[in-house]
Amino acid sequence: MNTRTLKQVMQWRQLIDTLMDSNQFADLVLKSGYFINVVTREIYMADVAIKGEHILMVGDASDLIGPKTKVENVQGKFISPGFIDSHMHFESAMLTVTEFSKLSIPTGTTTLIADPHEIGNVLGVMGMKAMIEEAKTLPNKVLYTVPCLTPDVPGLETAGYDVNSKDMEELLNDPYVQGIGEIQGFANVRPVFDHAPEIITDQLASVSYAKSIGKTVEGNCPGLFGKELAAHIISGGAHISCHETTTKEEMIEKLRYGISVFMREGSSQRNMAECIRAITEEGLDSRRAILVSDDMVPEDLLKFGHMNDIVRRTIAQGVDPVEAIQMVTINPAAHFGFQDRGLLAPGKKADIAVISDLNQMSIEQVYIDGKKVAERGELVIDIPSYIYPDTVKKSVKRKPVKVEELYIEANGSQARVRAIEVIPDQNLTGAKEFTLSVKSGVVQPCLQQDVLPLLVVERHGRSGKIGKTFMNGFKLKSGAIAESVAHDTHNIIVCGTNYEDMVIAINRVISMNGGIAMIKDGKVVGDLPLRVGGLMTDELTGKEMSEKIAELHRLAEEELGCGIHVPFMHLSFVSLVTSPKWKITDMGLIEVDNYQIIPTVIS
After folding, report:
1. Which of 9, 36, 181, 559 has the maximal Cβ count within 10 Å?
2. pTM (2 d.p.)
3. pLDDT confidence of 462, banded at 50, 70, 90?
4. Residues 549, 530: Cα–Cα separation, whole Å
């Protein structure tokens, strides 16, 4: 019997002894609350008795109240299991695991399932292991689903490290690793099958190993139906999720195929309202419907909340409150095979959210492992900040660039060009063509048509390339924005109204060893160093980061005239080559559906 098993046996025996011995009592009793039963979808009056980290019983706990038992009167309030975010990225919040947790715990989130493929693309196994180590210091449960392939589309983009099946044994055997994360390499089934079949073989090797040691596998199948969807499911070992579902029709198809559909409702990608129609309009069973955040900025976490806000929005779509809560508790627990959380019952972990207003999802108290950790939106425990080693803070391996390296060139006085169309609040992009003027052999931006140069500068010290195209719909009126957060390989992405400001923005990001830079008329309007992998900072708290991002958003709107909300997040996703139609990488303009590079200048 190992140490972990022995500890569990002793804990269970203590629970049994407390229940059976009239001289032993609970440590804590939540008294007279409205108990949310996520198994039977009921709400009824009950006490919840807790001993140590676990639930003793639910019901009348009067006999378990002794002289040293702490009693919390929660009359008129609702007792729910703590919430699970089943798919998220700390890097998207640009916060450390610790600082994200500090913001999310008071909102009722007690378990986070994070996919570290952002830092994995930049720093490989070393970067992911650094992030995993941080999770081991925290009171909430943080688990990881690691990538089995980086970059997502080999040959069409350049990452800092190439993850594949060779890395799975080292990563998957860590107890803080839940399994393999979104299998993006086979998201575009037909093009990969036709052009890069070796990806399928390597992925199957990784998936087979993961399944052999009891790990889970998450899918990524936007817009797939029929045979292609079936192939994707099999490539993930026959039981997967998908967080890239954007239509009611997709939702229906995937639920019928047995996929756990992670309905995304983040800061810039919001698909829940469309997906939930499969349940509210068609009456489909919701057991495999799960709510996730995917990507959230700290400003939204502070202003609106985390999973509680997503549940609130789901209720507003006509979903019964208890059914919505199931989507962040028992449903994800069933998907991941968690035996110790997701519902409140004897022997389960005492991870609890006490809710004062069910429809508004106002969180009164939060308990983790039987200890109160937050009350009325504030932590009541100390969680020290976490500082990363210098080894993860030197990820930008690029010398400063010159303005002439950025030019998109063409002959004549006009050029017909392709441009990526930004679709607000979506990863998906459109594909458009425009006629632009050419001066001295350089294609010019056109503010009237909202067509601006969009470039990706490789920063990992490998290809040295610069991909070039145009973007429509970013609504930038002056200056330039550059950042080292550019999904998923996280090279430096830049968009601007002129090449001169663009080169200054790029070089500012390089000089900071990663971050965000906004330039206008040759001067820095605002910037934010992100030295941890060029993705995150350990120099700001969550609140400080929220204030900083809010300031940068204000400056982007007021100084640069940017008319799209969360512009840095929208900009970061136009390089995500697993999501149709057109995207940009350091290799150039990518036609996602056909797995190929296409020229920006047509004629």
Report:
1. 181
2. 0.94
3. very high
4. 12
pLDDT above 80 (res 1): no
Rounded CA separation 441/445 (Å): 13
In this predicted structure, the answer to whether residue 496 has a pLDDT above a threshold of 90 is: yes
| Phi, psi (deg, nearest 5) at residue 467 | -85, 140
Using alpha carbons, select from 393, 511, 507, 514 the residue that is nearest to residue 123.
393
What's the CATH class of domain 80-386?
alpha beta
Q: Which long-range contacts (CB under 8 A, 24 or more apart) does 234-242 make?
A: 235/183, 235/186, 235/200, 235/203, 235/204, 235/207, 236/180, 236/183, 236/207, 237/207, 237/208, 237/210, 237/211, 240/183, 241/86, 241/87, 241/290, 241/335
Residues 6+ apart with CB under 8 A from 75: 31, 32, 33
The number of residues making up the chain comes to 603
- Residue that is written with structure tokens 């309905």 in the block: 263
Backbone angles phi, psi at 226, to 5 degrees: 55, -130
- Secondary structure (H, E, C), 9-77: HHHHHHHHHHHHCCCCCCCEEEEEEEEEECCCCEEEEEEEEEECCEEEEEECCHHHCCCCCEEEECCCC
- The radius of gyration of the chain from alpha carbons, rounded to an integer in Å, stands at 25
Q: Pairing between strand 442-443 and 429-439?
A: antiparallel
pLDDT at 3 over 90: no
Rounded Cα gap, residues 456 and 467, in angstroms: 5
Residue 153 pLDDT class (50, 70, 90 cuts): very high
Domain boundaries, given as residue ranges, for the chain: 80-386, 392-597
d(CA 28, CA 22): 16
Does position 185 have pLDDT exceeding 90, yes or no? no
422 falls in which pLDDT band (50, 70, 90)?
very high
